[in-house]
């Protein structure tokens, strides 16, 4: 078991709570949620990166806060943890621009895992 200090990039068990029965012809919640994450979080990630590099505490804090929650919902545990740390540092006015590269890499790695999970969940649901 991984500690909170070393969370996994992706924990597929987190998707279990999104796997609720749906009627015929309906898109499963897990598929919709993964799609929304993949489609909507690039702007948040860019805001975090830009905010860290520019020293913009407010933009960084807000984007990191939102990304933290969204990441936790889909099981992107390491990204949620890093976003939480960034949010707390931004709240204290202690941004570290060097974290931007680490964040950018972890975000890309997390999205790649989630794209794979979306493909698996879509296949299971019979969605092309």
Automatic annotation (TrEMBL):
Gene3D superfamilies: HPT domain
UniProt KW keywords: Phosphoprotein, Two-component regulatory system
Span of domain HPt: 26-121
One Gene Ontology molecular-function label: protein kinase activity
PROSITE patterns registered for this protein in UniProt: HPT
Residue numbers carrying Phosphohistidine: 65
Record's protein name: Hpt domain-containing protein
Example GO BP: phosphorelay signal transduction system
Pfam family, one: Hpt
Taxonomic source organism: Derxia gummosa DSM 723
Keyword Phosphoprotein: yes
């Amino acid at each position: 078991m991984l500690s909170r200090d070393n969370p996994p990039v992706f924990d597929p068990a987190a998707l279990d709570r999104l796997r609720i029965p749906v009627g015929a012809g309906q898109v499963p919640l897990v598929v919709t949620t993964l799609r929304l994450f993949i489609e909507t979080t690039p702007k948040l990630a860019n805001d975090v990166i830009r905010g860290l590099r520019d020293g913009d505490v407010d933009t960084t804090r807000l984007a990191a806060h939102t990304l933290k929650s969204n990441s936790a919902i889909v099981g992107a545990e390491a990204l949620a943890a890093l976003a939480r740390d960034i949010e707390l540092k931004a709240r204290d006015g202690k941004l570290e621009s060097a974290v931007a590269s680490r964040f950018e890499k972890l975000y890309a790695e997390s999205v790649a895992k989630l794209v794979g999970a979306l493909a698996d969940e879509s296949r299971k649901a019979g969605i092309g």
